From TrEMBL:
The lineage of its organism: Bacteria, Bacillati, Actinomycetota, Actinomycetes, Kitasatosporales. Pfam families: Amidohydro_3. Residues 57-541 form the Amidohydrolase domain. This is Amidohydrolase. It comes from the Bacteria. One of its GO terms (molecular function) is hydrolase activity, acting on carbon-nitrogen (but not peptide) bonds.
Length: 546
């Protein structure tokens, strides 16, 4: 990809030509004009000649693909950055490897007040168990250490960190020599993250946003709240995103009730939403279920943090404040509590008002036909993470171990949601899973449960336009005249149309269908490589050497 070397800003007029432009305005477009941060025109190579002399810059795509930039609809930016810059245990293949990584990290960080790590998953280790406190005390040399599980709903810690949290042994979720959950986990996490300096925090946020831009992500939705981050973390991120070039950041603050809604407005959040926890996670046995887990001797149905009445009160408070509401709900009982609560709120404030707000449910993994129908009825957006299915799905995956294979096959029902007319927005929940937009699209298109697969086109839309729609914007996330010029340029192979039903795929490749192609995402094929990311007409990433 070559260009005339002139300074670029969001106010310059740029012509991109000689590539493939993914646009519903013209399924055969090879060129695009950007002016004042918006798409001004898309069309054919021949028509591009008319613009060539009147623009400030010409970008010769040399066959590259131009698509809308991705939106990652669920991110914890500081946590994602700390995973990039700190101790990443996702690469540990066993408990012994994890302890070696802890020792190496402790030796390399002699001045850190608290050692931080993330990403361990004992379900993938031959040992099948997390480290004991004694093992961590030895590996960390007696220093305070916090290691969050891959789902961020439990953690293992050292004795020295517990000593910094008076009364933690009396908190719900504390166990003497097992991962901490619930209130105990929240308390130690607050202590650990409180040791991160403002400079360390800003560095982590920049690292995460740089990684996002390098992957063609133009927007991220920060899902914050008092039990998962801090007000300073949240407002600092919003300031950094406003002051420095990079992906857009849409902030959500998850704190319940009228006080939480007021706090969200005060902090500059788009909504009182995001990780407002109704329950926990399946991996940590804290997702709230109708029927007990199958892999624990004590049984149990997980943790319920908010009731249907709490949900109703929160949605009503959001309606009065004119803010979007949203909830973290994974287990089927938690999702039922959300839909029952939204129904009660609709009875109070009116169905039209509820639907217009586009309230969100994060994760929404265990749904029933009744809750899918309720999502459609109330206009709820399912903000979901297809990488969860790729990582934990299948008849021998973590979901099947926790729930049994039959229940596990019902999880993450993307096809059922789309058939019901439920809007989808895709994200990563990074650092739970890595920022990886094309991998996310692939995971949805090649879902481990064949009946829940969606077309690549539908998955791509959920990861681009779907994220914008989840914030109330219908005019973005697509390359048509008037839309924000948020786009990415890709080096990729032949463009194809992939759908679960081969008859649909065959028709869609017919020129008469007018269906623009997308990269071949068949498992095992190379994913597209991002060459450039542009946000509001401003370049925020260029791959070195391009």
């Amino acid at each position: 990809m070559s260009e005339r070397t002139t300074p670029e800003s969001g106010h310059r007029t740029v012509l991109l030509r000689g590539g493939e432009v993914h646009s519903p305005a013209d399924p055969f477009a090879t060129a695009m004009v950007v002016e004042r941060g918006h798409v001004a025109w898309v069309g054919s190579e021949g028509a591009a000649d008319a613009f060539a002399d009147g623009v400030d810059e010409v970008v010769h795509l040399e066959g590259a693909l131009v698509t809308p930039a991705f939106t990652d609809a669920h991110v914890h930016t500081t946590g994602a950055g700390l995973a990039l810059t700190g101790l990443d245990l996702s690469r540990a293949g066993s408990l012994a490897e994890a302890l070696v990584l802890v020792r190496e990290h402790a030796a390399a960080r002699p001045d850190d007040r608290v050692l931080l790590g993330h990403g361990w998953d004992a379900a993938r280790w031959p040992d099948g168990r997390p480290p004991t406190r004694a093992e961590l005390d030895e590996a960390a040399g007696g220093r305070p250490l916090y290691l969050s599980r891959v789902d961020v709903h439990s953690a293992v810690v050292t004795t020295a960190l517990l000593d910094l949290v008076p009364g933690v042994a009396d908190a719900a979720g504390f166990r003497a020599d097992a991962p901490l959950t619930a209130d105990a986990h929240h308390a130690v996490r607050e202590a650990a993250h409180g040791a991160v300096t403002p400079l360390q925090r800003a560095a982590a946020q920049r690292a995460a946003l740089r990684r996002a831009a390098s992957l063609g992500i133009g927007s991220v939705h920060e899902c914050a709240g008092p039990t998962i981050s801090s007000e300073d973390d949240f407002t600092g991120l919003l300031r950094l995103a406003a002051d420095e070039p990079g992906p857009r950041v849409v902030g959500y603050w998850g704190e319940p009730g009228a006080e939480g809604v007021a706090r969200a407005r005060e902090l500059g959040a788009r909504g009182a939403a995001g990780d407002l926890f109704v329950d926990g996670s399946l991996g940590s046995h804290t997702a709230w279920l109708h029927e007990p887990y199958e892999d624990t001797d004590a049984g149990g149905t997980g943790n319920a943090y908010l009731s249907a009445a709490d949900v109703a009160d929160h949605v009503a408070a959001c309606a009065e404040a004119g803010l979007q509401a949203g909830f973290h709900a994974i287990g089927d009982a938690a999702v039922t509590a959300v839909t029952d609560g939204v129904r009660a709120a609709a009875d109070k404030v009116g169905l039209a008002r509820v639907r217009a707000a586009r309230h969100r449910v994060e994760h929404a993994e265990m749904l029933t036909p009744e809750t899918v129908a309720a999502f459609a009825e109330f206009g709820l957006t399912a903000s979901v993470q297809p990488a969860f299915d790729a990582l934990w799905g299948g008849d021998d995956g973590m979901y099947a171990r926790r729930l049994g294979a039959e229940r596990a096959r019902t999880l993450n029902p993307y096809a059922a949601l789309l058939r019901a007319g439920v809007p989808l927005a895709f994200g990563s929940d990074s650092p739970v899973t890595p920022l990886d937009p094309w991998g996310t699209v692939r995971a949805a298109a090649f879902h481990r449960t064949a009946g829940q697969r969606v077309s690549v086109r539908a998955a791509f839309t959920a990861h681009t336009r779907g994220g914008w729609r989840a914030t109330g914007r219908d005019d973005a996330g697509v390359l048509v005249p008037g839309a924000p010029a948020d786009y990415a340029v890709w080096r990729t192979g032949e463009l194809v149309v992939q759908a679960p039903d081969d008859r649909v795929a065959r028709w869609s490749t017919d020129p008469r269908s007018g269906t623009p192609g997308l990269p071949d995402l068949t498992p095992g094929t190379e994913l597209p490589v991002c060459l450039r990311t542009v946000v509001a007409g401003e370049t925020v990433f260029v791959r070195p050497g391009e």
